[in-house]
């Protein structure tokens, strides 16, 4: 069945099987009642709805008004800096000129970096085109909120620029992988209150060149605000240099 019986705030439903095999208990899930009322695997977390009263109304995640991702869908927070998400890679790609059918990894991900693109503040020459890789992942708060507006960069190479997490918490960052011979200090920072920030740092080693790496889900905890934490991670490649981003090829002549 469902965890905690959905706390009487949702209906426990079983997913339909995709084949003839039997379903496991994990196929049960909560469908929370009401529109934008509750969330979480057991509907245990309320959703912030009053975004201009200076109060944390959704059960104590520590985020008030426009600092809470829930409020980024409200008109009160439409222009708030904390609700500004990064560009969507696929949308940027559609505005680019077609590539030749055979192109290097560097040329195929170059569109991610530059003004009006995914990665901002890039200084020419700060990323070696022969050592390039792309990091991806999703950011969450402990209550399951998808974290928009977090700033990501390689703290050891800040001149390579930064990206912002999107409304669904996803992020993309182009880095110089150094063929796995050096460390990448992937830092995250997002305003938590007017005077404090959520901060985290992930040290990555052995990052292969010419690959897309998925770091999975990363949770930033408000209790750690102002105190960067270090996580040692061994990333795994989720795609070769020929996958992940759809390519718009020019016709062969």
Automatic annotation (TrEMBL):
Residues 1-21 are annotated as: Disordered. The lineage of its organism: Eukaryota, Metazoa, Spiralia, Lophotrochozoa, Platyhelminthes. GO terms for biological process: heterophilic cell-cell adhesion via plasma membrane cell adhesion molecules; neuron development. One of its GO terms (molecular function) is protein homodimerization activity. Transmembrane segments: none annotated. Residues 128-193 form the Teneurin TTR-like domain. One of its GO terms (cellular component) is neuron projection. It holds the Pfam family TTR_TEN1-4. This is EGF-like domain-containing protein. It comes from Macrostomum lignano. It comes from the Eukaryota. Keywords: Disulfide bond, EGF-like domain, Repeat. InterPro entries: TEN_TTR-like (IPR056820), Teneurin (IPR051216).
């Amino acid at each position: 069945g469902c965890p905690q019986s959905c706390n009487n705030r949702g209906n426990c439903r079983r997913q339909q099987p995709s084949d003839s095999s039997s379903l496991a208990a994990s196929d049960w899930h909560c469908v929370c009642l009401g529109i934008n009322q509750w969330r979480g695997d057991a509907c245990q977390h309320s959703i912030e709805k009053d975004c201009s009263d200076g109060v944390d109304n959704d059960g104590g995640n520590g985020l008030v008004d426009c600092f809470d991702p829930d409020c980024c869908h409200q008109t009160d927070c439409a222009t708030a800096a904390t609700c500004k998400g990064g560009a969507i890679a696929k949308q940027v790609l559609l505005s680019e000129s077609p590539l030749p059918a055979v192109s290097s990894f560097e040329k195929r991900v170059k569109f991610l970096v530059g003004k009006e693109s995914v990665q901002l503040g890039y200084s020419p020459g700060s990323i070696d085109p022969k050592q390039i890789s792309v990091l991806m992942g999703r950011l969450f708060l402990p209550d399951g909120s998808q974290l928009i507006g977090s700033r990501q960069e390689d703290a050891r190479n800040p001149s390579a620029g930064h990206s912002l997490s999107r409304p669904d918490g996803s992020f993309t960052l182009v880095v110089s992988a150094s063929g796995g011979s050096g460390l990448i200090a992937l830092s995250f920072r997002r305003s938590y209150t007017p005077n404090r920030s959520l901060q985290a740092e992930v040290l990555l080693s052995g990052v292969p060149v010419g690959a897309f790496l998925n770091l999975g889900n990363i949770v930033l905890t408000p209790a750690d605000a102002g105190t960067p934490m270090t996580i040692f991670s061994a990333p795994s490649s989720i795609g070769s240099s020929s996958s992940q981003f759809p390519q718009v090829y020019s016709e062969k002549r």
